[in-house]
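Lecture 7 notes: from sequence to structure.
We start with the chain below.
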Amino acid sequence: MARIRFVSGGSEANETALQLARLYHVERGETDRWRVISPAQAYHGSTMGTLALSGRRSLQEPYTPYLADHLHLEPSTWRFDPSGEAALRQLDALLDEAGPETIAAFFCEPVSAAALPGYSPPEAFWRGLDERRKDHGFLICFDEVVTGMGRAGTWLAAHQLPIQPDVVAIGKGLGAGYAPLGGVFCTQEVYDAIDRGSREFDLGHTWDGAPVSSAVGLAVVDLLVARGLVERVRERGPRLRDELEAALEGSEIVREVRGRGFLLGVELVDPRDGSSFLPVEFDVAALVDDTALEHGLLVTSTHPQADGFAGDQTLIAPAYVSSDDELAEMVGRFAATIGDVERAIQDSLPRHP
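Predicted structure tokens for the same chain:
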């Protein structure tokens, strides 16, 4: 990444990335490029521009009349497409349907957070996406609002993948909760298109790059470097995922434990067949969060069955400064939480799904 523009939060960062992708093509004379292809099971922010990047109608309503008509892929999860090949075929079909000359960008999280906790597509998908970028000329934009600044074990999650993005949005970890701050990186090629063209990028908000927020960002970076926290997450993360998986082994409602660094996801399923979504009316996501709180643990769970792409899931994201003892306590409390939730589910389910 060669350049950065500072903004005041994650939604704004993704909105800026979206506008930057459009402007890049306009500056190059490709004014028909405006549409975006993105994973359907996604969340990129609460502005009208970023809401349109999701394929989740339940998330977009009642604002759909205002949203751009972008295109969406089903996730390459164990349930739909474990190899990533189906997603590549669908991507080809969408490119043919829309016309590759109309596509401005592919927009996604390299490792998903709230929408599909801890999930990242198979390597074959990333390699295929890179080939199609070269063939068709669209940009790749990464939403690293959650993963950026070390959450996945590297400064950007992109650093772990066999593909390099053209634009990256960052947010939460840069201000660390102390000040509203985000940023948008771009490659030199993207910057040069504007610099050699109109030299104008006039999107801006009141608190973009404000002095106090910027000072906080510098302090956060200094602390991450001085204490080696990104390296700590990289070194400890794989073992933490293994420990969480071992603690949940034998649970009939846990199908998958996944993630990178200190961004982990647990996917829950109907214990009667080990694969179906849990009944929507049970709202297991809320049950997990409430039960975890009773155990003195904060987690964030999602309940997106209505969109058809994923079931109840839980996101676990400990602080970078967590000690080994604290991580062990977290794992133990979450295992106890899942045990309580599973018993409640088993007591409520009829025998057959």
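Points to note: The chain has a mean pLDDT of 96. The chain has two domains: 3-225, 229-348.
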